[in-house]
């Protein structure tokens, strides 16, 4: 299946595994690459040295193209851009709009730049700056998300830019891929579906925990880090929703300290990242502290397997999933189903 995405990146199938923090490591990314999709390493929850090791391990596991997701507002973002260039990483993905300078540096080195965006105006901006493609996630998606459904957000972005658009939010099978291609997208990106695969390093008990949820099993909350965040509706999340903001801030400060000790980031760098996040946005200082809290809450669930003390990011598609396939079977099944659906379409016009 050849699309603008496969031609741009050099993968066999227009399927992207997103850069999920604590989840998208070398094993999952390499398995995706080997199966013909585009796997993306999540670097936001890695120290610089951990990212170096992750890139090298992924390269040792596969000779196929893969990407790395970067936080554009990270204190060492420029150093990480240099690392991607030095290591010859094919795709640079950004969770926030990258600086124009980053795009220029990466493109001059031969990397493909694919930011994630949540609105048509953001897509136009990064396209004007030279981005090669964009991932657009509708409100159905897990983690930080917007309020507009993919069925409306996707066509609005397709109308706004001429670069390849990858659809995310609500995709999990071949029907979704066929629909996205019919809209005019160049492929689909999935997070929750890849989290629930055999190669995902999320503890097996946690994967089974996810599979117990239905279509109404997620909630968009601002009590995790002050921004809309789609997560599983757990006892902890319900508690956060009911608690006062003062209680939430107290726990956020404690977890921010844990995150600082674990990553060995200097407090002044964390403050600088916070200032960069706050710049131009109506965020309170308490929200910034809560944002530092998020990695630890996610780590507790996705790494340590504590579904009571952790927050579990999830898209609404969790309610449609009932199995834990291998990445290879997942991608091959999605593409085969999409091809079969597309192959039948001409009969509709007869």
Give unreliable regions as ranges.
275-280
Number of helices: 15
Number of beta-strand segments: 11
Strand content: 5-15%
Oligomer: single chain
What number is the mean pLDDT?
A: 89
Order of helices and strands: HEHEHEHEHEHEEHEHEHHEEHHHHH
Q: How helical, in percent, are the residues?
A: 40-55%
Highlighted features:
eight-stranded parallel β-barrel; three-stranded antiparallel β-sheet; alpha/beta; TIM Barrel; single chain; 2 domains; 48% helix; 350 residues
Can you walk through the features of this model?
The chain has 350 residues and is of the alpha/beta class. It has 2 domains: 4-201 and 322-349, Aldolase class I (TIM Barrel, Alpha-Beta Barrel); 214-313, no CATH class. The protein contains 15 helices and 11 strands. The strands form 2 sheets. It has an 8-stranded parallel beta barrel, surrounded by 6 helices. A 3-stranded antiparallel beta sheet has the order 7-11-10, with no helix packed on it. β3, α4 (77-87) and β4 form a beta-alpha-beta unit. α2 runs parallel beside α3, α3 (48-61) runs parallel beside α4 and α13 crosses α14. The radius of gyration is 19 Å and the shape is globular.
């Amino acid at each position: 299946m050849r699309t603008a995405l496969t031609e741009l990146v050099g993968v066999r199938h227009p399927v992207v595994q997103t850069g999920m923090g604590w989840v998208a490591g070398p094993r999952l990314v390499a398995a995706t690459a080997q199966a013909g999709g585009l796997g993306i390493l999540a670097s936001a929850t890695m120290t610089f040295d951990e990212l170096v090791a992750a890139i090298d391990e992924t390269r040792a596991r596969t000779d196929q193209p893969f990407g790395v997701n970067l936080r554009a507002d990270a204190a060492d973002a420029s150093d990480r851009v240099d690392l991607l260039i030095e290591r010859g990483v094919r795709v640079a993905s950004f969770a926030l709009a990258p600086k124009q300078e980053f795009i220029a540096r990466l493109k001059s080195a031969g990397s493909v730049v694919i930011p994630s965006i949540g609105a048509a105006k953001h897509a136009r901006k990064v396209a004007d700056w030279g981005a090669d493609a964009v991932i657009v996630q509708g409100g159905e998606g897990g983690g930080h998300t917007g309020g507009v459904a993919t069925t409306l957000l996707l066509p609005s972005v397709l109308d706004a830019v001429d670069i390849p658009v990858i659809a995310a939010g609500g995709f999990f099978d071949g029907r979704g891929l066929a629909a996205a291609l019919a809209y005019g997208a160049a492929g689909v990106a999935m997070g929750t579906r890849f989290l629930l695969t055999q190669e995902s390093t999320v503890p097996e008990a946690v994967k089974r925990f996810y599979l117990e949820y239905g279509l109404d099993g997620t909630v968009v909350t601002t009590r995790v880090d002050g921004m809309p965040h789609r997560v599983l509706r757990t006892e902890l999340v319900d508690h956060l929703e009911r608690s006062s903001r003062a209680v939430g801030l107290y726990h956020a400060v404690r977890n921010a300290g844990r995150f600082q000790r674990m990553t060995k980031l200097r407090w002044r760098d964390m403050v600088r990242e916070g200032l960069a996040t706050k710049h131009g946005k109506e965020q309170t200082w308490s929200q910034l502290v809560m944002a530092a809290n998020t990695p630890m809450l996610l780590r507790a669930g996705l790494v340590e397997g504590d579904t009571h003390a952790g927050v579990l990011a999830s898209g609404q598609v969790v309610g449609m999933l009932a199995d834990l396939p291998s990445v290879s079977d997942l991608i091959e099944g999605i593409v085969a189903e999409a091809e079969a659906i597309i192959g039948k379409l001409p009969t509709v016009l007869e």
